[in-house]
């Protein structure tokens, strides 16, 4: 009984789902043509959106996106639309149990939880690989913040397979957790609470056989960059990380995010074409720096004040 109560409190603290009214989702989700419902259990479903880029995309990949704990599909919808346009891949984003439209579903089980996150991402994977017939090898798993938990959980199942046809294409983690408690308490203190700890990404990432890219703000005070750095050190197939100088947990410019994801997609695409045409790490670094400089220049131009007197 005590353990259940503790887990209930942990879930309430870890998953502060937005509490927008249904009218908000009418505009941001319910009116979308790409809205999908995923079955996650008996009489339980969560929404998802499947943003496709059309037939012009070559060597098509699909990004399976897991958002942070203070967001939902309605809040992120415009960002996700723009992300799909910029990265050169289809994008499938889903909500966790207890988030957005699931909150208005009948029943008393629609409460955010660790198990709800896991059920939701497994339902998303099942939809992509069975209903949408997307090969596992064409799916890139993307997790932001707490979304790194269900993402690494899924990757631990589909990113460890020996057969590349059954393995996901890769994983991108933005501001990821080593684990929930390690992110808050640090690795030494967290060992005292291991029985209650969850999303223990640090115990899974070293098993992944696919490429894994990590980006993290150097000034992140919510999930310290030490989490991202520790996970990167454990990877067997690391992609060049991006430690975003001067930025925190929620203020990494969208331009940087899109560029990193785009480079990751292009890296996978080039690998399939053969090693002779691979972009070198230095070339990828230069592209990313160019994107940053372009973003800063745009910001500078927007902030120019013209005195007309």
Q: Would you kindly provide a brief summary of this structure?
A:
The protein is an alpha/beta fold. It has helices at 2-14, 22-30, 73-87, 114-131, 148-158, 180-185, 187-190, 225-234, 254-273, 281-302, and strands at residues 35-41, 44-51, 62-66, 90-94, 139-144, 170-174, 211-217, 242-244.
Topology (SSEs and partners):
Elements: H1 2-14, H2 22-30, E1 35-41, E2 44-51, E3 62-66, H3 73-87, E4 90-94, H4 114-131, E5 139-144, H5 148-158, E6 170-174, H6 180-185, H7 187-190, E7 211-217, H8 225-234, E8 242-244, H9 254-273, H10 281-302
Parallel strand pairs: 3-4, 3-5, 5-6, 6-7, 7-8
Antiparallel strand pairs: 1-2, 2-4
Q: How would you describe what is shown here?
A:
By secondary structure, this protein is α/β, with parallel strands linked by helices. Helices cover 41% and strands 15% of the residues. The protein has an 8-stranded mixed beta sheet with strand order 1-2-4-3-5-6-7-8, with helices on both faces. Helix 3 (73-87) crosses helix 9 (254-273), helix 4 crosses helix 5 and helix 9 (254-273) packs antiparallel against helix 10 (281-302). The radius of gyration is 19 Å and the shape is globular. Mean pLDDT is 88; it is low at 302-309.
């Amino acid at each position: 009984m005590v353990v259940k109560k503790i887990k209930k409190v942990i879930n309430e603290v870890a998953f502060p789902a937005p509490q927008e009214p249904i009218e908000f989702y009418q505009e941001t989700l319910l009116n979308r043509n790409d809205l999908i419902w995923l079955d996650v259990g008996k009489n339980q479903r969560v929404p998802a959106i499947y943003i496709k880029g059309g037939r012009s995309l070559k060597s098509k990949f699909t990004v399976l996106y897991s958002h942070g704990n203070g967001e939902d599909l309605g809040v992120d919808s415009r960002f996700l639309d723009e992300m799909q346009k910029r990265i050169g891949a289809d994008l499938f984003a889903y909500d966790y149990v207890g988030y957005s439209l699931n909150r208005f579903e009948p029943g008393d089980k629609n409460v955010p939880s660790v198990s709800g996150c896991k059920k939701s991402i497994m339902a998303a994977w099942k939809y992509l690989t069975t209903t949408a017939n997307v090969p596992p090898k064409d799916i890139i798993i993307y997790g932001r913040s707490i979304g790194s938990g269900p993402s690494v959980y899924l990757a631990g199942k589909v990113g460890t397979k020996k057969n590349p046809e059954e393995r996901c294409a890769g994983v991108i983690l933005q501001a990821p957790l080593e684990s929930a408690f390690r992110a808050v308490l640090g690795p030494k203190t967290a060992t005292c609470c291991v029985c209650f700890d969850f999303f223990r990404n640090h115990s899974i990432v070293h098993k992944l056989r696919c490429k894994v890219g990590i980006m993290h703000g150097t000034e992140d005070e919510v999930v310290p960059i030490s989490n991202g750095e520790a996970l990167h050190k454990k990877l067997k197939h690391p992609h060049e990380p991006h430690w975003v100088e001067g930025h925190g947990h929620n203020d990494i410019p969208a331009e940087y995010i899109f560029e990193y994801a785009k480079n990751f997609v292009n890296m996978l695409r080039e690998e399939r074409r053969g090693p002779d045409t691979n972009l070198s790490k230095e070339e990828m670094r230069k592209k990313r720096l160019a994107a940053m400089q372009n973003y800063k220049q745009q910001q500078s131009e927007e902030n120019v004040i013209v005195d007309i007197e």
